[in-house]
User: Which sequence fits this backbone?
């Protein structure tokens, strides 16, 4: 594709872990709405850490959709932030790279990482119980989260400065 | 378990969870990292300001048994591999082997070879990731390096961009081998009771042979990197062998018929704190040897060697605590199953004072030894003409009842246990994952590290990293706890005075 920007909306989560599936559901809704639209690719993945490298290499922009549990916001609230909020940190998880670390690794290796990254995250109640039904408040947030992800993706396609403002 | 025992067990579990929740509510949480799923260490000081106890709390997966009930047993290799994004292939293989047992069917020789090939490829890839990227900051960059450098970028600074690229490329290619047989790594569809779903086309053999050869070269190169960057540094070696990171416990691991280490199959061998064989048993007998202890302060269950009884978090000759994972496997076996790995293993034990080695941080070196065996096994299997056979499944014909499967996951022994009705629908399911097996020893490691570093209320600035190192060496899997953003597990240390009021909190993001 010539000079047109390519943006990836990447839904993360686990469809067996109750609310942890929300990123996958949001990506599914966004994908249906964007069907056939050039320039935006929508993917879902249950993998994490380093495996994300395989998904995101080669895109100009990246919108990650995931669950988050801050405990400070009502369940279903949508958080949005950029990569600065997930700065490259010391690995405190024994077996994972965080999203920021994965991007830092890709950049350091010259793998063609997205220049613009945005995160849309839905506050969840329970990402630990094995079940396939999300809690109601999380389910109700899916449409709005998909809207936010699409708006941000469109903003990235035009120009980063035109992307919607932070609304957390 | 009889109903009365089950009731007592459940009640104890309920109290432990309630206590843990009450404790968590009481803690002041930093607003930036206030995650329900954080790792937490509570340190309780005595009147002199020294450490009385230190507890590690981690979230746990909930509801596995309920979720499994009534599902076809054949679904378990897919379901369990999706539970955790870290060990999908280990769960898939343990579940597949449990199905073999459930239907009393042996996989064909070719099917077994394919399973072993895929499994060793998985161990190779997973271990390489840990050595370079996850454990790397501790040793390749160094435990005393500034916190800002102790990350993946710091590792690249030490080993060079080209080596880092090689790590990433090798990992991707090995994953392609796994995907060739099983589809997506996270959704493998390889294992079936009695065999596998896909064979190896002879036309594809040369590229995989080449890959295995390069994997072995890479494994030997990794061994050299570990020598150059770690073993030649006396400070690191002193750290590895320091008392702070040493526990004299029992060890468990799978061994083959010659008592050599095996990732995929064999008998489970337990050696005591002196390295003497205490037990060797088939997976089906695991409940005779493994029991779980519940403490009121934790929602973790602590495994111990059942016939020895729960002796507390103790080490030495009377300890019933055991470890799994690379160091434990090397201690539990009489040696490695392949020649280069055996040489590396000999050097490991001669350098560290002979068998058994009790230094937790030696897990990192043991992991390197195991990478070599995994790669050599890949080479050997692909050189075996039987690997391209077409008889890849024995169709089960017997009625299912009970099935137990075991593998050595990269981070330790993994048990899957299913019971079904005659239609093959699950009536009971139980997993014992590596981190559960290691839980008691991890708890001991955390407490010992804390006791070594905190004296008279003075908290060493290096506390967080040193305590983290104590449990990171086990490569514990908190996969289900770390899926939500930020994608890693923030660690919080709460220090309580003798009146049990919070006196200090440290947060490691």
Assistant:
């Amino acid at each position: 594709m010539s000079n047109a920007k390519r943006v990836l909306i990447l839904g993360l989560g686990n469809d067996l872990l109750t609310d942890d599936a929300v990123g996958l559901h949001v990506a599914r809704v966004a994908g249906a709405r964007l069907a056939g639209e050039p320039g935006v690719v929508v993917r879902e993945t249950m993998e994490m850490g380093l495996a994300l490298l395989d998904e995101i290499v080669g895109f100009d922009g990246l919108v990650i959709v995931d669950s988050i549990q801050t405990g400070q916001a009502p369940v279903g609230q949508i958080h949005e932030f950029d990569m600065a909020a997930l700065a490259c940190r010391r690995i405190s998880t024994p077996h994972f790279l965080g999203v920021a670390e994965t991007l830092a690794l890709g950049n350091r290796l010259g793998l063609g990482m997205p220049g613009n990254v945005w995160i849309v995250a839905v506050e969840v109640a329970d990402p630990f119980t094995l079940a396939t039904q999300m809690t109601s408040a999380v389910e109700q947030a899916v449409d709005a989260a998909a809207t936010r992800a699409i708006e941000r993706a469109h903003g990235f396609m035009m120009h980063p400065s035109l992307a919607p403002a932070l609304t957390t | 378990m009889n109903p009365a025992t089950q009731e007592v067990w459940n009640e104890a579990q309920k109290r432990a969870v309630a206590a843990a929740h009450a404790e968590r509510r009481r803690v002041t949480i930093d607003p930036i990292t206030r995650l329900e799923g954080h790792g937490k260490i509570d340190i309780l000081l005595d009147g002199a300001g020294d450490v009385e106890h230190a507890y590690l709390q981690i979230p746990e997966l909930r509801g596995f048994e309920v979720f499994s009930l009534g599902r076809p047993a054949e679904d378990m290799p897919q379901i369990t591999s999706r539970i955790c994004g870290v060990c999908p292939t280990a769960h898939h293989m343990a579940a597949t082997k449990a199905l073999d047992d459930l239907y009393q069917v042996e996989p064909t020789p070719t099917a077994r070879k394919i399973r072993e090939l895929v499994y060793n490829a998985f161990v190779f890839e997973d271990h390489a990731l840990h050595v370079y990227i996850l454990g790397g900051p501790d040793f390749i960059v160094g435990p005393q390096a500034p916190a800002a450098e102790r990350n993946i970028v710091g590792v690249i600074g030490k080993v060079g961009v080209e080596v880092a690229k090689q790590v990433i490329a090798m990992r991707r290619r090995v994953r392609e081998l796994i995907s060739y047989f099983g589809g997506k790594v996270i959704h493998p569809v390889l294992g079936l009771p009695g065999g596998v779903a896909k064979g190896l086309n002879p036309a594809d053999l040369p590229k995989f042979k080449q890959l295995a050869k390069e994997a072995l070269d890479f494994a030997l190169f990794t061994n050299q990197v570990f020598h150059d960057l770690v073993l030649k540094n006396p400070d690191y070696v002193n750290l590895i062998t320091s008392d702070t990171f040493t526990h004299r416990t029992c060890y468990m691991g799978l061994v083959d018929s010659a008592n050599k280490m095996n990732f995929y199959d064999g008998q489970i061998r337990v050696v005591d704190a002196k390295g003497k064989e205490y037990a060797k048993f088939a997976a089906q007998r695991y409940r005779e040897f493994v029991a779980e202890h519940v403490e009121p302060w934790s929602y973790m269950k602590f495994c111990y060697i059942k016939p020895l009884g729960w002796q507390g978090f103790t080490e030495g000759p009377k300890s019933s605590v055991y470890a799994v994972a690379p160091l434990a496997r090397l201690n539990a076996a009489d040696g490695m199953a392949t020649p280069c790995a055996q040489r590396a293993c000999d050097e490991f034990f001669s350098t560290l004072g002979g068998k058994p080695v009790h230094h937790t941080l030696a897990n990192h070196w043991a992991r390197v030894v195991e990478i070599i065996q995994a790669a050599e096994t890949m080479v050997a299997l692909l050189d075996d003409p039987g690997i391209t056979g077409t008889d890849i499944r024995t169709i089960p014909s017997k009625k299912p009842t009970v099935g137990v499967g075991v593998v050595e996951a990269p981070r330790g022994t993994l048990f899957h246990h299913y019971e079904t009705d005659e239609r093959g629908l699950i009536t009971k399911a139980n997993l014992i994952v590596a981190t559960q097996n290691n839980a008691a020893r991890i708890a001991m490691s955390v407490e010992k590290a804390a006791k070594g570093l905190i004296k008279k209320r003075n908290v060493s600035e290096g506390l967080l990293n040193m305590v983290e190192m104590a449990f990171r060496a086990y490569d514990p899997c908190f996969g289900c706890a770390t899926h939500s953003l930020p994608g890693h597990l923030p660690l919080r240390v709460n220090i309580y005075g003798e009146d049990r009021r919070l006196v200090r909190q440290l947060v490691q993001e």
